[in-house]
Design brief:
340 residues, alpha+beta, Arc Repressor Mutant, subunit A, 4 domains, six-stranded antiparallel beta sheet, four-stranded antiparallel beta sheet, 11 helices, WYL domain-containing protein
Length: 340
Amino acid sequence: MPKDNHIKFYTLIEILKKYSNEENILTKKEIDILMIKKGIQPINDSRTISKYINDLIKLGFDIEIIEKNNNFKGYYMVHHEFEPYELRILADCIYASKFITKKKSEGIITKLGKLNTIYNRYSIQKYAYIDDRAKTENKEIFYNIDKIDRAINENRKISFNYYSYNEDKKMVPRLNDDNSIKEYCINPVSMILQRDKYYLVGEDIKRAGGLGNFRLDRIKKLSILEDEIDDLKHIEDCKNKFNPVDYTKKSFKMYSGKEVSKIVLEARKKLLNVFIDEFGKDVDLKKINNDLYKIEFEAKVSRGLIMWILQQGDNIKVIYPKSLIKSIKEEIEQINNLYK
């Protein structure tokens, strides 16, 4: 096949991918018009187009040849890399992700749209909604994801500044006691996407002894250090290979906590769905009576777990461990003191 024909052949593939579907059948004339718009000489010869289409079918492309009353009508590509509903799901996930800036979300959706026909692309962009009230403004996040990934693969430590909001609703770096900007030095272990937020899991070297969770949308000025990651076998979660699924189950709402403990609760029946949503199907459920269940699971005793239990009011009672019961009583007492 001459070079010019190679170009026409591959341009035909792109035209069918981008402009054809079951509702938009391309005639030979329309294919030639689109060729010209792309700066390519039209194929003109109907026999050549037919040969190209047959070659594409042999190569595995799912192309439908439409004929009506023995008269040729046109072609369209049946299956694309992604079905429209698959692209819509991906687009909605991108729009809903709080750790991605509004501008970056729009850029990613534009790229996703190019994986299907122009008609579905317009549909994805037209009907999607970005709630930018919850979107991060940290433009470094994607570069940081890449840096953290490289650091873990190269077994190297990282450093960064960690930011929080002030009363002016501005992100400001956390400070040391002397008001200098605090620099975190971390043994990175993993990155975890949980509850629409991206977290770095790692050991803060200055507070050695356990893993901490850092939101990627609050990390800035991240650097990969020359120092190798320390041996982390003294940390329970790293004794064997780190398991992110197991870690997230035990780190309630990604709050860092003490050692993993068996948690025993009594809860009303109406909270069964809530427990399955929060802890998965690994929770142990035992019926006490028609309205009360005994629920057991493993988790780290953390502030996140304490506050979640308190949110459920009198629908939950903690049975074990005693340390959790004590923490909840102390929290209730502090809340009560606010209203005396």
